[in-house]
Amino acid sequence: MGxxxxxxxxxxxxxxxxxxxxxxxxxxxxxxxxxCAQVPRGxxxxxxxxxxxxxxxxxxxxxxxxxxRAAVLSRIGDGIAARTAELGAMVAEEVGMPINLATMIxxxxxxMTFSTMAPLLAAFPFxxxxxxxxxxxxxxxxxxxxxPWNYPLHLIxxxxxxxxxxxxxxxxxxxxxxxxxxxVLAEIVHAAGxxxxxxxxxxxxGPEVGEALVSSxxxxxxxxxxxxxxxxxxxxxxxxxxxxxxxxxxxKSANVVLDDADLPAAVRATVTSAFLNSGQTCSALxxxxxxxxxxxxxxxxxxxxxxDYVPGDPFADGTRLGPLVSSxxxxxxxxxxxxxxxxxxxxxVGGADPPAGLDRxxxxxxxxxxxxxPGMRVEQEEVFGPVLAVIPYDTEDEAVDIxxxxxxxxxxxxxxxDPDRALAIARRMRTGMVEVNGGVFNPxxxxxxxxxxxxxxxxxxxxxxxxxxxxxLQL
Length: 475
Ligand code: NAD
What we know:
Layout: E1 5-6, E2 10-12, E3 15-17, E4 24-28, E5 35-40, H1 44-62, H2 66-82, H3 84-95, H4 99-115, H5 117-122, E6 127-130, E7 133-139, E8 142-146, H6 152-166, E9 169-173, H7 180-191, E10 199-201, H8 206-215, E11 221-225, H9 228-239, E12 244-248, E13 253-257, H10 263-275, E14 285-291, H11 295-306, H12 327-342, E15 346-349, E16 367-370, H13 377-380, E17 387-393, H14 396-404, E18 408-409, E19 411-415, H15 419-428, E20 433-436, E21 450-451, H16 460-465, E22 468-474
Parallel strand pairs: 1-5, 8-9, 8-11, 9-10, 11-12, 13-14, 13-19, 14-17, 16-17, 19-20
Antiparallel strand pairs: 2-3, 4-5, 6-7, 7-22, 15-16, 18-21
The structure holds nicotinamide-adenine-dinucleotide (NAD).
């Protein structure tokens, strides 16, 4: 790494073409604070070209045999696996995630997503008899996939693999903050032999090209992952064409630690979740609810676990905490920490001051706040930085109410020595996903949120369904 990566063409209709939009978008390395890559600044004309290419390719692709699609997707999975080291380093450089984690998670998961498509498609019930009807599942059409920067290739893979597997064609618009992996994916897709126009890649500023795709009558479905604010705008812009909109948005997820739980294990798991990718994970468990009598003990355990998160160079051995993605994000997170203290929260460890010993990079220290009360901004809003809010509660019902009382409904956790008790609380969470006693992420289980965390579901069999229409043929 270290050299400027210049991607100067968009991938439209199977060709690498010049953008009609002017100039380039700079990508900044959040550790060195230097420009590390450039991508084309596509515009609405490019968006229209990409949509037209995807439309032209849709008919033939939608009629291919499922086995044929599965075979191409497996080859794409192999192609990603073959470039693992390069892709992991790109994510570490553009996002700031420590290289080992970036390689394992941010490349390992996409390989799995593409590679598991073949068995999922082979078992998928595309047709079903209901009385005198044949119910068939058909691809929705042209999909605009719009993705964020925090898990750039994983979130692209979750959409693209399932959409292509379902028989849809795709226009991908990755985040302008970490776009390089999408260009490598386009190269891999070509090498895998996907027909021209089935996968198209364009870059540019979200409000311009993103909105052009979302409002285009040539797009049948928008699959969007990003912030709740932009998700609202996407839903509104899509409404005039009544297209399907799948939204995967922000979160403010709570981990409810019950009074009989293994507190050290629960606290360690919460800290690990809250600080993964410097807290820039939509499903991060950023609120830890603990029984009031165990608050002091929980704080001590959290402080001890946080000591492992020494900020540093994402490429250095042993770094657990990289920088935040941008200076704007760093200032936002510092503002939340200062605001929380002004609102009466108590700083256990970390804080808004720049971490010592680092003279560059958009770092924020891993921070634990305690005595956080329901309703405080830091308790209600997505911070998207390494900030854990510890909230004491008095009764189990109160804990459930606090956990559920935000606009979000993405993820939650519950810890108890009694699995039945934990499961009963998990069922009361108004979220799309719940981790019970640290149950691990399952890449084949449905992923998605409720309420203002969105309405989409990705991954596994449910992820394929997202890109299908249902048609009844009365016989
Ligand atoms: P963002 O909303 O700023 O941007 C997401 C994408 O939308 C980018 O590609 C951006 O260019 C594009 N965009 C911006 N304005 C647009 C517009 N007006 N119309 C169409 N597209 C537009 O989000 P971000 O900062 O890239 O990502 C962080 C957010 O994503 C966090 O809120 C996080 O919780 C959320 N997220 C959710 C999930 C999930 O699965 N639920 C996963 C990862 C991230």
